[in-house]
Amino acid sequence: QKKSKDNLRCPVVCVLGHVDTGKTKILDKIRRTNVQDGEAGGITQQIGASFFPIDAITEKTRPVMELHKVEYNVPGLLIIDTPGHESFTNLRTRGSSLCDLAVLVVDIMHGLEPQTIESIGLLKKRRAPFVIALNKIDRLYGWEPHPELPVQQALEMQADSVKAEFQQRYDFAVRQLQEQGLNACVFYENQDVRTFLNVVPTSAISGDGMMDLLFLLSTLPAKMLIDKIMYHENLECTVLEVKAIEGLGTTMDVIVVNGKLKEKQKIVVCGLEGPIVTQIRSLLTPQPMKEMRVKTPYIHHQEIKGAIGVKICANGIERALAGSNLYVVGEDDDEEELKDEVMKDLGGILKKVKKNEDGVYVQASTLGSLEALLEFLERPGEDRDGNPNPPIPVSGIGIGPVSKYDVMRCGVMLEREREWEAYACILAFDVPVLPDAERSAKEIGIPIYTAEIIYHLFDAFTKRVADIKA
Ligand code: GTP
Ligand code: MG
Ligand code: NA
Asked: Which residues form the Tr-type G domain (predicted)?
């Protein structure tokens, strides 16, 4: 089958930006969901993907389609939400490495912030086109919401003082972007999308600009990336997260950009102890406009086609690594070759998991969150006076619920010198502790600190050190 303009796949769109600029809230507003309210501390700590079918997009964007007299030719959008918190550089990198196109969310009240600039760097490296959502315009003093109108018209309806404040903050953001070597222009005045980045004023609270953002994401790929989004059959599939789900066992959330996956197919992914060869037991997706991270009734598929986010159930994938490529072993394929190929990815990850002799034991739900935790413990931010906090060395790692096995492995620290006493503990991020692990931890005297927010683990450990010294 030849690639053609008549057979496009969904563009993969990644949402990037500084913490709390409103990335998740924008997606919530479009999906009519409430993912952000359910996040611990309101902070995104995982990557999530949602599928937006073109019918739903068309319905939500009719006024702006009529204004610009444009029709869509993509079958929908696959949108990936990423965390903005500084410790999740790895997830931002993974998200941006998958995307065809990105939305960089900037808080209009704050302008560019550190992770905005980091994200610009990632996107430049990828040469991925992106649009800027200048979000929180409802916070302009006196803003009157008009989510039913294209944002250009909503702006025209505002009082002069609101228009003036918008212009001043918009000009400021544009100047800041210029300092990053980027030309930007509000999208409805942009005559040259190859020279000027499109800026869309948005509010995830009032809904202003939501249709304009969807409109841009659905029309830009055909203008800028048509060759890239022509569907082809060569499988391009990446593991986003590996996690245990009640009633399903261990599952892998994957993004299939091109090609197909079918039930019963034999697949290869990268594992901590070596390549994992297994069979697809089932292929599940959330309902359209829902997110994979949230519990919704799943749809079962016998076959799926990129671009799509899908949950794979299979045996023996407990130790599979997020970030790994996934290959299908077809009749004509050399399984050994694919096993070698898939393990190439591990190099960089293992470097991070480099073990110290003396250090705490850390445990996380997924490799993605483990990477984030390790990265944070290496550079745990600054104290109140702006001095860098000391790193916390890590001597052992685990993924998934804390088990007795993890406690035993951590227990080794108890046999080392007194000065390392503080390290004999487990920092468990976003994972439950199994009852027998809890019992044996009490017996041998290993505290297990659990938290849903990474830096709470740092606080717990810091307090432990202080208590031991006192
Ligand atoms: P991280 O994923 O943690 O990086 O944050 P985020 O970029 O996903 O931001 P999130 O959606 O968590 O929103 C952060 C806060 O800003 C929440 O309190 C939101 O209610 C608020 N917020 C988001 N968008 C808007 C907006 O357009 N207007 C106003 N007034 N508040 C907003
Ligand atoms: Mg978020
Ligand atoms: Na947030």
From this structure: 8-225
